[in-house]
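Appendix C reproduces, verbatim, an entry submitted by the partner laboratory led by Prof. M.T., so that reviewers can inspect both the input and the predicted structure.
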Amino acid sequence: MSESFQVTFDAANPQRLGEFWAAVLGYVMQPPPEGFDSWDAFLDSVSWPADQRDAMYAIVDPEGTKPRLLFQKVPEGKTAKNRVHLDVNVGAGLPHDERKSAVRTRADEIVALGATELRTAEENGEYWIVMQDIDGNEFCVQ
């Protein structure tokens, strides 16, 4: 039996980083629990302190099939290379030249969202671009 999972990011500003990744992946902000018209209404109901409401931000796949991403506020900044990273797959199933074009186009779109391109790589018929998100986390577009 497989287990469901979420991917959690440490962040200086969870909402800002969550909104970046929502734009990259086509995700949406996680809706508030059933019976609440907003997150503030829910947080009020559980007496969550107002000064801690920026501690987390979650985004979800609008189709409900892919993992939830959670962004949690931490005081320290990123200091080393990621041990785990996301690969954003945009060229799967395309012929090599079309795949390279699709990857390049999507990487340019992601740079416009605030990401930084680090380098391109091509090996064994694969092509990818290594990038950093707005908090410096590495990821690949392939």
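The mean pLDDT is 94. Additional entries are available on request from the coordinating office.
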